[in-house]
Amino acid sequence: MTNAFLLFYPASLLKRIAAAGAILCLALPASAHEFWLETTDYHPPVTAAVPISIHVGQFFKGNSFPYLGDEFVRFAVHAGGKTADIKGMNGDMPAANIALPTPGLAAVTYHSHPFDLTFKEWKKFEAYIHQEGLSGVLARHAKGDKPRTEIKELYERDAKLLIDAGGGGKGQDGLTGLPLELVAEHNPYRLKAGNPLPVRLYFRGTPLPDVQITAFSRADPKHPKKYRTDSSGRAEVPLPLPGPWLLNAVHMVEPAKDQDAHWYSYWASLVFFRP
């Protein structure tokens, strides 16, 4: 960050930028915080500037954070059959402003670098595992003779936002390359009232069975619903209320041998607007 950049930002924002990395790290699985992308316009006109914000919080409510290039592996927009990296300056608020050149469904994705955390107490780790529906992890933990205190975890965020450019409800979601990715198998902007949204969860391009998906409605965020993927990685998610929705899923695996951790987890989110 240059001195010239510092001169154009008030001290309060600079403090927030400096702390943002730490705050993002505090969005820990231990506290079951979500991480998601959001916009104020889910149906923007083609070529109009669309603000993209980064959020951390609970129950689909939380703080917004700036663009920080060191926090992510890739921040990109997928539209019209093309993918482009989102470039910005550290401190940009909102994190990005993009223009979608063609009508249809567009996806904005964010793949974070891994963060680390330590569970000092077994009961907190156990509560986290149960809350996120991570079946089999506790048995694998015991079988692997892993510790019951000072449990180290690495985790990354894989967020996706779907936007209806042009407002016509055209196009279809698909894989974008996120390690853990939720894919809407029906365009949510064409979803009829009363119909569930079919979604499929993929891990490195392969459908992932028996994983919990938690659905939050902006209209009723304190009452999320939980579903599990079937043997083909699919789940039918009812969307009884119109407006923005957030879907969240967590997958935990053994870390690589050169990683100083007992577990590695992936957190996927999918945000869209249900008419």
Distance between the termini: 42 Å
- As residue ranges, the low-confidence spans are 1-27
Radius of gyration: 19 Å
Query: Which overall shape is indicated by the principal axes computed on the Cα atoms?
Result: globular
- Number of helix segments? 4
Global mean pLDDT: 90
- Helices and strands, in order, run as HHEEEEEEEEHHEEEEEEEEE
- Which structural class should the secondary elements be placed in? mainly beta
Number of domains: 1
Number of strands: 17
Query: Strand portion, in percent?
Result: 35-45%
Largest sheet: 9 strands, mixed
The percent range for helix content is: 10-25%
Oligomer: single chain
Give an overview of the whole structure.
38% of the residues are buried. The protein has one domain (3-274). Strands 4, 5, 7, 8, 9, 13, 14, 16 and 17 form a 9-stranded mixed β-sheet that branches. Strands 1, 2, 3 and 6 form a 4-stranded antiparallel β-sheet that branches. It is mainly beta and 275 residues long. It is globular. It has 4 helices and 17 strands. The N and C termini lie far apart (42 Å). A hairpin with a 7-residue loop joins strand 13 (212-217) and strand 14 (225-228).
